[in-house]
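Quick one, tokens below:
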């Protein structure tokens, strides 16, 4: 799969929609998970009305319907949304970056485009895509952990997505791992995402740089001398080039990642953990320390099989592909 248009295919296509903070991205997706073509539109800001967001989604779908290859048909639309999606996959109960509060998104879009619509949490959609077409293929008990500004995820047990009673399972980032630890925007203290996310990586790098430590001189030089300009990709790039401090920062995040994954293993016992999101691009610089911490924290260690920890394969388009495939195979 790629952003570039793929070869036309006969038969059933579905459309996947990925709603981000700044863009709505849609793609024509075939049954093998290949993206045939993509269209984008700017997302309304958080102040935009629910109707404006829905108009944008419908516009992207309409553009894609106009370019369906000869001999193919579009049977359904899947929408991946960041936020709480109800168990019926019909309404977005809360979206942190958009003006959705109890928004009946499925019916609102279906009324505009005259096609069946499925709404799914974006992390669930990405987990499904990795199970169907990516790093988790062949493993029916899978937990996906998405490391971005926070931590999200999805759960597949016995080959089925597990959404919980109210559709809100997989909010792993808000497991509390440090009593009275760092304050989280959710209102609690010590949440996992305060220690094992992109925000955690950037916070630690900036704080160290602001302290005047000579250990981050090279990293500061990379961004022109201002600690506030350090980003997660900057730390990853420096680590890949051998910067010792950048490697330590990633190892710290990886260690916390492994500790949290050990907790998830105690509860869910999957065969594989698939690690995605922007921070996962650090590869073994992150996953090596995670595996080491996981092995040291795992309940029953030494007397049980150990789940694999692998990097996601589908990248930034996993949510789009997963949403499209879930529209084809509702589960």
């Amino acid at each position: 799969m790629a952003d570039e248009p793929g070869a036309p295919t006969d038969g059933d296509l579905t459309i996947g929609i990925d709603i981000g903070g700044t863009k709505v991205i849609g793609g024509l997706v075939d049954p093998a998970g290949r993206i045939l073509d993509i269209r984008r539109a700017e997302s309304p800001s958080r102040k935009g009305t629910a109707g404006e967001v829905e108009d944008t989604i419908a516009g992207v779908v309409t553009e894609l319907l106009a370019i369906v290859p000869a001999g193919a048909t579009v049977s359904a639309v899947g929408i991946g949304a960041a936020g709480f999606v109800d168990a019926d996959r019909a309404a977005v109960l809360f979206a942190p970056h958009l003006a959705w509060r109890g928004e009946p998104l499925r019916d609102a879009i279906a009324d505009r485009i005259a096609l069946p619509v499925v709404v799914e949490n974006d992390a669930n959609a990405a987990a499904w895509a990795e199970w169907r077409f990516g790093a988790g293929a062949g493993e029916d008990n899978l937990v996906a952990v998405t490391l971005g500004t926070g931590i999200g995820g999805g759960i597949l047990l016995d080959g089925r997505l597990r959404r919980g009673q109210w559709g809100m399972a997989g909010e792993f980032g808000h497991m509390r791992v440090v009593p009275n630890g760092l304050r989280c925007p959710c209102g609690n203290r010590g949440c996992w995402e305060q220690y094992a996310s992109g925000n955690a990586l950037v916070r630690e790098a900036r704080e160290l740089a602001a302290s005047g430590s000579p250990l981050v001189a090279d990293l500061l030089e990379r961004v022109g001398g201002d600690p506030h300009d350090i980003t997660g990709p900057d730390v990853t790039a420096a680590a890949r080039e051998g910067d010792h401090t950048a490697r330590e920062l990633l190892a710290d995040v990886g260690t916390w990642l492994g500790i949290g994954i050990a907790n998830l293993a105690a509860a869910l016992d999957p065969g594989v953990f698939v690690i995605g999101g922007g921070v996962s691009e650090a590869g073994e610089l992150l996953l090596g320390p995670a595996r080491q911490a996981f092995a040291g924290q795992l309940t029953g260690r030494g007397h049980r099989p150990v789940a694999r920890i692998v990097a996601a394969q589908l990248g930034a388009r996993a949510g789009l592909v997963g949403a499209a495939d879930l529209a084809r195979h509702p589960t």
